[in-house]
Structure of Signal recognition particle protein:
Amino acid sequence: MLENLTTRLASVIKNIRGQARLTEDNIQDALREVRMALLEADVALPVVKDFINDVKQKALGVEVLQSLTPGQAFIGVVHNELTALMGTTHVGINLATTPPAIILMAGLQGSGKTTSSGKLAKLLTEQMKKKVLLVSCDVYRPAAIEQLKTLASQLGVDFFPSTGEQKPLDIALAAQDYAKKHYHDVLIVDTAGRLGIDEVMMNEISELHRSLNPVETLFVVDAMQGQDAINTARAFNDTLPLTGIILTKLDGDSRGGAALSVRHVTGKPIKFIGVGEKLTGLEAFHPERMASRVLGMGDVLSLIEDAQRNVDHAEAARFADKIKKGKGFDLEDFKAQIQQMRKMGGISALMDKLPGAAGAAIPAGADEKAVNRIEGIINAMTPQERSKPEILKASRKRRIAAGAGVSVQEVNRLLKQFEQAQKMMKMMSKGGLSKMMRGMKG
Ligand code: GDP
């Protein structure tokens, strides 16, 4: 599934040149690649345009965490935006109404409506312990009624019989009545489809919708149909108040574009995906998981997550290693830690998370400005002063204060903070991270 898209996106990662920040320049080619990949995967053009814009806006200025390459950081942005494009969070089936909760299935002939009705009945029965009744209103195709009946008996789910001589609405209302009397929790109404959008079909299903007032109106669409799937989705969405989408045949060699477009075009959540002809082939749709699948880079994505989560630990470990090797913690390291904190985002948000020395040394509530001043002071020192702060006597301090545009008191305060940080590093080298964390809390 979606292999071409995945392959193309994989090449993006390698092609962003190494820089600490994502810029207009270094992501330009990557954006072009993503655009091509999406168009090839049959994602609708307006969707591609919006998506590329979003990715660009979000990517510009993103700092590249130390353990990542710029390509990986860019993929992180694409992953987030893909997830958002597909709806961000999983939306489950809604059965919150007086029983029977009616689920109306809509879609073109061959989209997988009948199969999906059966799959859904299985899922609701087995996973949600619901008592389900299935009914078919496809009076034009007796074979379709038979097909649903067969599925129902395979599943051991109740089936409400109908014939080609009845009217669809009469069938549905009789089934609703039957479900009420027999305490069914859910009634799944399969409807007639056509090969294309057709006014008679639309009127019929609109009438069913008005009379049944279903809690779910699910639009079933075949992912293999590419751009056509999107046009059909739009037409159904304009006519019926859809509550969700079932995207079928994602197991086949669909190019996958529909999965990426359909939410954006209709504004309705994809609730399930069909991943096989068997009755077990229905899965709850999770935008985040689908985005990972599309990118096909599980390893990179977890790397990004780890980098974001562990950058603080990694940094602490690096310093611990340095101290173990007998090297002192100097002002240069202190500055590096402060810069590291910057990279990780807002200072105050990180104050309590950072087990590094800088976390302990910078007073709680320190803002960006305070950090800028600290950096300014360290920058005004000579390399020798940074590596041996003990040589900083009054005259040197005055020179540094003047160079950094601060008072001598501020230089002294910084040196105090640095001493605290040094102590912290010593503690860490003796007792490891956990001891240091305890020290920080106390
Ligand atoms: P309907 O006309 O909308 O009721 O469509 P059907 O339920 O009869 O399905 C049409 C064809 O698509 C059948 O051959 C199904 O087995 C097949 N089908 C339905 N859903 C899926 C799916 O998720 N994956 C695959 N591979 N085939 C499916």
Remarks:
- The pocket of guanosine-5'-diphosphate is lined by residues 107, 109-115, 193, 248-249, 251-252, 274-277, 281 (CB under 6 Å).
- The chain has three domains: 3-85, 101-285, 310-441.
- Confidence is low (pLDDT under 50) at residues 345-361, 433-442.
